[in-house]
């Protein structure tokens, strides 16, 4: 007998759009062209994406939201159905171009595209769940976060490490989260050039993630990109993040294992590594253990080993270790992989990995709620109009921030 998951997988968009929603459909989104765009090509593109009414309307109950998903599936244009079918087929077939296109879709801030991305993700997740069931309920992939101060040697390590893993028959996806791209709005071009060989490897996929200036953005798109990479058959997903700001803490909630990369330099530079992130790390790696750096790297390894003893362990089944690697000579890299495999086996055996992932799903849901709630709030017609004047009054000291917040919250809770 077919399971519900398989049914959803096979039926795709048509099953998700039951015919009995026609009355609701009458008041829902339908696609219509907009006229204020430039070229004919731009107009055609805009026409594809422009809903007559916002499809993601605010609803009060979970059932209504589920209905909204169905409603959206029901109101997809033929072009959108074909797009989603093509992306799903390509992605599940491991096509890199489709994976790239799917990630671009989830990264979009366009409301309608976001809804389409949600539909695609739901299907990918459903298929993944089915695949995991066939694998005895065990995850098919392993997610590793790599954090550390700028210049610690993470990308150089990923190049060597990634090549070693593809050589062993793994499919490796590298997602690079770069807080510095907030200012440039760009992506980690520097990193891609540091991983030249890996980016040419057919069993590797490297994707820089622009942050769009919001940590929430990093969380949403990185989490979703991980799911898409796994759907495309990548069994190792490596997420690189710079240990600046909050992104490494966000990444810790998305991965199975967090590795902290520490360069062999002492003193003030190390003050930049927050105690909190050391506590989160499942493994500490001292990088650049070669040439003149070898002696300080050994000293650093001893220091961190002592320091870790004083910290509380995150897992009751695993004691974090400190290792040394050199991406230049390759020393320590196979041993590090052994440690990662040991960690994975320990977590799988104890069932901690599955529990961790389930908890992360909840964290993910709440981070999405937090991200969207401010957007909904600022978008509310009664709130939107009052924001500029109230902000001015607060800045001029005419009213307290608390009173301004109360006024806006009251306007928000008043029926439109
Ligand atoms: N000697 C030596 N130098 C290294 C090693 N790994 C990296 N480096 C050098 O360290 C510098 C920074 O390396 P990256 O790999 O870009 O460091 P990163 O941590 O990715 O940096 P961000 O992405 O900016 O956070 C580069 O100049 C590398 O050549 C190593 O194993 N040995
Ligand atoms: Mg880097």
TrEMBL record:
Similarity comment text for this entry: Belongs to the SIMIBI class G3E GTPase family. ArgK/MeaB subfamily.
Family annotation (Pfam families): MeaB
Annotated GO MF terms: GTP binding; GTPase activity
SUPFAM superfamilies xrefs: P-loop containing nucleoside triphosphate hydrolases (SSF52540)
Assembly behavior: Homodimer. Interacts with MMUT (the apoenzyme form); the interaction is GTP dependent.
Record's function text: GTPase, binds and hydrolyzes GTP. Involved in intracellular vitamin B12 metabolism, mediates the transport of cobalamin (Cbl) into mitochondria for the final steps of adenosylcobalamin (AdoCbl) synthesis. Functions as a G-protein chaperone that assists AdoCbl cofactor delivery from MMAB to the methylmalonyl-CoA mutase (MMUT). Plays a dual role as both a protectase and a reactivase for MMUT. Protects MMUT from progressive inactivation by oxidation by decreasing the rate of the formation of the oxidized inactive cofactor hydroxocobalamin (OH2Cbl).
Keywords from the named record: GTP-binding, Hydrolase, Nucleotide-binding
NCBIfam families, per the entry: lao, PRK09435.1
Cellular-component GO terms for this entry: cytoplasm
The organism of origin for this protein: Chiloscyllium punctatum (Brownbanded bambooshark)
Superkingdom classification of source: Eukaryota
Catalytic activity as recorded in UniProt: GTP + H2O = GDP + phosphate + H(+)
Protein's name in the database: AAA+ ATPase domain-containing protein
């Amino acid at each position: 007998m077919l399971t519900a998951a398989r049914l959803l997988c096979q039926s795709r968009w048509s099953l998700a759009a039951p015919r009995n929603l026609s009355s609701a459909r009458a008041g829902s989104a339908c696609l219509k062209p907009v006229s204020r765009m430039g070229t004919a090509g731009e107009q055609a593109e805009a026409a594809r994406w422009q809903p007559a009414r916002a499809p993601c309307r605010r609803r009060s109950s979970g059932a209504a939201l589920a209905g909204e998903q169905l409603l959206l599936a029901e109101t997809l244009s033929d072009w959108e159905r074909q797009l989603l079918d093509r992306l799903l087929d390509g992605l599940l077939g491991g096509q890199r171009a489709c994976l790239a296109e799917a990630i671009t879709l989830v990264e979009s801030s366009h409301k309608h595209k976001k809804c389409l991305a949600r539909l695609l993700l739901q299907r990918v997740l459903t298929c993944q769940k089915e695949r995991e069931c066939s694998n005895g309920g065990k995850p098919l992939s392993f997610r590793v976060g790599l954090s550390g101060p700028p210049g610690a040697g993470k990308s150089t390590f990923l190049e060597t490490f990634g090549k070693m893993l593809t050589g062993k028959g793994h499919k490796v996806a590298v997602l690079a989260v770069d807080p510095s791209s907030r200012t440039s709005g760009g992506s980690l071009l520097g990193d891609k050039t540091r991983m030249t060989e890996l980016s040419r490897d057919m069993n590797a996929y490297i994707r820089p993630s622009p942050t769009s200036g919001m940590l929430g953005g990093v969380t949403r798109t990185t989490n979703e990109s991980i799911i898409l990479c796994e759907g495309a058959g990548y069994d190792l997903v490596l997420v690189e993040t710079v240990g600046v700001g909050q992104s490494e803490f966000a990444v810790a909630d998305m991965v199975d294992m967090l590795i902290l990369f520490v360069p062999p330099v002492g003193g003030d530079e190390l003050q930049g590594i927050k105690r909190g992130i050391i506590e989160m790390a499942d493994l500490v790696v001292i990088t650049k253990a070669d040439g003149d750096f070898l002696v300080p790297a050994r000293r650093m390894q001893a220091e961190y080993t002592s320091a870790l003893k004083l910290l509380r362990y995150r897992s009751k089944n695993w004691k974090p270790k400190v290792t040394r690697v050199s991406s230049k000579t390759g020393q320590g890299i196979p041993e590090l992989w052994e440690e990662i495999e040991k960690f994975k086996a320990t977590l799988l055996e104890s069932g901690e990995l599955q529990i961790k992932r389930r908890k992360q799903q909840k964290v993910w849901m709440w981070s999405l709620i937090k991200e969207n709630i401010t957007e909904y709030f600022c978008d509310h017609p009664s709130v939107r109009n009052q924001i500029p004047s109230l902000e001015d009054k607060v800045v001029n000291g005419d009213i307290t921030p608390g009173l301004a917040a109360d006024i806006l919250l009251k306007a928000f809770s008043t029926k439109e």
